[in-house]
Amino acid sequence: MLRIDWRSPAAYAYTKNIPAAGFAWEYLRRNDDYREDFISASLDADGKSGADKLEVFVRRWGLRFSERSRRIA
Q1: What is the distance between the alpha carbons of residues 61 and 53, in angstroms, rounded to a whole number?
Q2: What does the pLDDT look like over 18-46, one tens digit per residue?
């Protein structure tokens, strides 16, 4: 459970300086349904392959993940 005073504007002052994706993450990580789905998608309880479970999870929450760079630094 988060331990911030959601009524205090000072608790959210940092949101003025984060990109849209960061703001979306701050909202999403507080969503109980998302957190339950994340845990469920992480477990192999229903017999679906990991890729299938990830696809269902991504579609439900409208997530997009950028591809990792294949370039080796």
Answers
A1: 12
A2: 898 888 888 888 899 999 888 887 765 55
